[in-house]
Amino acid sequence: MIERSIFREDHNIFRESVRRFVEREIVPFHAQWEEEGIVPRELWLKAGEEGLLCCTVQEEYGGLGLDYLFDVVVFEELWRAGASGPGFLIHTDLVATYILSFGTEAQKRHWLPKMVRGEAIGSLGMTEPHAGSDLKAIRTKAVQDGDDYLISGQKVFISNGQMCDILVLATKTDSAAGAHGVTLFLVEGDRAGFSRGRNLAKLGMKAQDTSELFFDNVRVPATNMLGSEGNGFKLMMTKLPQERLAQAIRSATVTETVIEWTVDYTAERKAFGQTIADFQNTQFVLAELRTKASVARVYTDKCIELFMQGKLDPVDAAMAKMFVCELHCEAVDKCLQLFGGWGYMWEYPIARAYADARIVKIAGGSIEVMKVIIGREMFKGRLSKK
Ligand SMILES: Cc1cc2nc3c(=O)[nH]c(=O)nc-3n(C[C@H](O)[C@H](O)[C@H](O)COP(=O)(O)OP(=O)(O)OC[C@H]3O[C@@H](n4cnc5c(N)ncnc54)[C@H](O)[C@@H]3O)c2cc1C
Asked: Out of 34, 76, 243, 256, which one is annotated catalytic?
């Protein structure tokens, strides 16, 4: 495999400590959390104490002011261990990033130190029951009332929704203005009128809470607005490449991991007097996957570099997400096949990885939406329909 060149020695040392943390504090309990549908709050506090949350937040806001690769290390180590429960990525990569990038000084000083310590858990509330891919169609309303806004509506599929203390919420302040009517607010989890619905039962990612959220005339001060009125859609669009990159990082990591598990398993398991690895079919399947995994990793790392230089454009990010997430789903399917019946058993990590994988083609912009973005760029100015 081409050696990765983006990490320095300090990242490698950090990786060792994250790996120990994951093995000690997460792996032994993850199956229990899957049954409970949620990870305990104490895990967030421990992760905060260990410096695993929001690594890039500057010291003045209670963080360590490290570079993005430290966040990448945390995400990779979680995915490598199959630890899909802790919603650190949404908290760190999305919510904290929104506040850092678009928040007022007061918002940053209030929320970021708590988020770094794991005392305040973040969620991102965009999707509604009738509007996911087409975000400008959201209906949750924010109506001005003196110095406040009153928020009413409903969100669904919100990760960390049962536990969140702070929510970046997409609303409509002008329902007739389409994308220009979208405004973001920070909504505290203890606001009157805010309630949490079901922790939804899912195909995979069973330890991560995913919720319905309800807003019944939730009063928030105008100072809770994130960005300015009507520019929420634009702000969300600027963060999408980062979100898609994170998904590619996840998928590149899981793809490599399931290939490793499968090499180990098939080298031991026997049938017809030889190991499963001795069948040429096994070698061919794994050789193809490994080749694609290597290509995916190099492309993803290049996107990480571009992102850190402020040069990752939305089309490159969409291509990363599309290619690597599709590979991820292909890899879990083909690897599970090589485990035979044992691969279908929940006690085997490959079964969990298979169930966890399916979401990567849907959330954070579906595969089809990635193709729309790529195709539009290819035919820029040449399509008959706008
Ligand atoms: C486990 C999980 C966690 C999630 N976490 C969050 C979260 O924390 N916060 C949040 O806000 N949301 C979250 N989501 C929601 C997620 O982002 C949406 O499910 C996703 O954006 C797709 O929206 P949808 O489900 O409404 O599907 P729809 O938009 O209804 O799409 C249905 C199908 O139509 C296709 N389609 C849509 N538009 C086009 C088009 N233009 N061209 C071609 N095909 C198209 C889609 O690709 C899909 O296949 C989560 C979802 C899940 C399942």
From this structure: 243
What is the Cα–Cα distance from 93 to 239, expressed in whole angstroms? 10
Nearest protein Cα to ligand 1, atom 35? 368
List, chain by chain if needed, residues with CB within 6 Å of any ligand 1 atom: 90, 124-127, 132-133, 157-159, 202, 205, 210, 359, 362-364, 366, 368-369, 372
pLDDT tens digits, 219-239:
999 999 999 999 999 999 999
Average pLDDT of the residues in 350-362: 98
Distance 246 CA to ligand 1 centre (A): 17
Tens of pLDDT along 163-183?
A: 999 999 999 999 999 999 999
243 is catalytic: yes
What sign for the dihedral angle of Cα 10, 82, 247, 137? negative
Q: Is residue 1's pLDDT more than 90?
A: no
Of 57, 62, 24, 58, nearest in space to 43 by CA: 24
Rounded to whole angstroms, the Cα distance separating 350 from 262 reads 9
